[in-house]
Design a protein that fits this description.
Order of helices and strands: EHHHHHEHHEHHEEHEHEEHHEHE
Strand content: 15-25%
Number of domains: 2
Shape: globular
Catalytic activity: holo-[ACP] + malonyl-CoA = malonyl-[ACP] + CoA
Organism: Paraburkholderia ribeironis
Radius of gyration: 18 Å
Protein name: [acyl-carrier-protein] S-malonyltransferase
CATH class of the largest domain: Alpha Beta
CATH superfamily of the largest domain: Malonyl-Coenzyme A Acyl Carrier Protein, domain 2
Number of strands: 10
InterPro entries: Ac_transferase_dom_sf, Acyl_transferase_dom, Acyl_Trfase/lysoPLipase, Mal-CoA-ACP_Trans/PKS_FabD, Malonyl_transacylase_ACP-bd
GO cellular component, one term: cytosol
């Protein structure tokens, strides 16, 4: 099988994530220590005890996601597993680039912390949140946005599948879209995030990150990496650097990423990080029957294992 490693973003965090990885592997302990040193936060304690509201803050969840996901990368590589391609969903792009050897562990964690701080300050200036719309065709779901978008209070933040969108905006804007979505028969659910990511409402974070990322060393990826903001493969270091800044205001084109990977010959997806949100999205798509997907970690599960039906 040709396996793509895919990395989750905000909303995948939970108390206890990565616990077995930290307890049983040197990679897990090393990454949490690095994350604590760079962020200056007691991330190990937050993973263990929470509260959930604390680990949802961008300055916390960005380094936490990077630490857990990248520890899984090192654990997989030590187990002689390698990806044929990588892709990250939103914040997951930081770990995806690490998996593709675009930068080393220290730069990776520095970027995660920079993104977290930039998003924290942007959210303080513009409060908002995100929600999912699922169950109706995307064309019908998009109609639910027309009123809100005309007032720039809500935008499509992610195209997750043919019947699944993520919406981001102000609380009033989300309420308007939710009522219209429910009226059209869609299912609506709030996402555990701290701000209106992937919209121009957090443009200040984009500007800040463009400046802060400019001097950091990026190398050409050793395996193909697919960018969520473009829905396409990228090997140019300037575009990769720019993506980590611009993606905070652009929608995630996840369906295009998945379809592009399959067209490129990928026939298995392994979710590398906490939870199985991305596998849930894959399960909602009409994938070819030969395409498999699996995850490494489920909330509440005590096992640390590599799925046997995904071969590398």
């Amino acid at each position: 099988m040709r396996t793509a490693w895919v990395f989750p973003g905000h909303g995948s965090q939970y108390i206890g994530m990565g616990r077995k990885l930290v307890e049983e592997t040197a990679a897990g302990r090393r990454w949490i220590e690095l994350a604590e040193n760079v962020s200056g936060l007691p991330l190990g304690k937050l993973i263990e005890k929470g509260p959930a509201s604390e680990i949802s803050r961008p300055e916390v969840v960005e380094p936490l996601l990077a630490a857990v996901s990248c520890a899984y990368v090192d654990w997989l590589v030590a187990s002689s597993r390698t990806p044929a391609a990588v892709a990250g969903y939103s914040a997951g792009e930081v770990a995806a680039m690490y998996a593709a050897s675009v930068f080393d562990a220290e730069v990776c964690m520095h970027i995660a912390c920079l993104r977290g701080e930039a998003l924290k300050h942007a959210a303080a200036q513009q409060q908002g949140s995100m929600m999912s719309l699922y169950g109706s065709p995307v064309a019908e779901l998009t109609e639910s946005l027309e009123h809100a978008e005309s007032h720039e209070t809500a935008r499509i933040a992610a195209f997750n599948g043919p019947r699944h969108l993520t919406i981001s905006g102000t609380l009033d804007g989300l309420k308007t879209v939710a009522l219209r979505g429910l009226a059209s028969g869609a299912q609506v659910g709030l996402i555990d995030v701290a701000g209106p990511w992937h919209t121009p409402l957090v443009e200040s974070a984009q500007r800040r990150l463009r400046v802060e990322l400019a001097a950091l060393p990026f190398a050409p990826p050793r395996v193909p990496i697919w960018l969520g903001s473009e829905g396409a493969v990228c090997s140019d270091t300037a575009r990769l650097r720019r993506s980590l800044a611009d993606s905070v205001v652009l929608p995630v084109r996840w369906q295009a990423v998945v379809e592009g990977l399959i067209f490129a010959g990928i026939d298995a997806f392994l979710e590398v990080g906490p939870g199985h949100v991305l596998c849930g999205m894959l399960g909602q798509m009409s994938l070819p029957p030969n395409v498999k997907h699996a995850f490494l970690e489920r909330s509440g599960s005590g096992r640390l294992r590599i799925p046997t039906h995904i071969h590398h």
